[in-house]
Amino acid sequence: MEIDSKQVHSHGHMHEHVHSHEHTKAVLNRMSKAIGHMESIKHMIEDERDCSEVLIQIAAVRAAINNIGKIILQDHINHCVVDAVETGDVQVLKDLEEAIGKFIK
């Protein structure tokens, strides 16, 4: 399967690089664990477990997702942003600013 080095984003601009990162496997593993944890929370709710227990588990999933976001952000800065600065792609920096704003809401 060939990957096109130009990727169109939802807001219409093109990136000239491929989004491959060194931590992809770790991110996917963490996502799988968080998804499994969410399934467990769903079962807790179905079983009418104590609300305090459910809230604590939701907090744990939120922390896991935030940590996944941090890994992705670090990878993005270390690869995409560095590449964008070297090639003069200021749109990547604008996109990063927008993404950070949404991530920390």
Tell me the total number of β-strands.
Answer: 2
Give the integer mean of the pLDDT values: 84
**Helix/strand-derived class?**
mainly alpha
Strand order of the largest sheet: 1-2
Report strand %.
under 5%
Helix content: over 70%
Which spans of ≥5 residues are poorly predicted at pLDDT below 50?
1-11
How many helix segments? 3
Task: Please describe what this structure looks like.
The protein contains 3 helices and 2 strands. It is mainly alpha-helical and 105 residues long. It has a two-stranded antiparallel ribbon. The chain is elongated.
Chain-wise SSE layout:
Blueprint lengths: L6 E2 L5 E2 L8 H23 L4 H37 L2 H14 L2
Antiparallel strand pairs: 1-2
For this entry, give a set of tags:
single chain, 105 residues, mainly alpha, two-stranded antiparallel sheet, 3 helices, disordered N terminus
Give a quick summary of the entry.
This protein has 105 residues and is mainly α. It is built from three helices and two strands; from the N terminus they run ββααα.
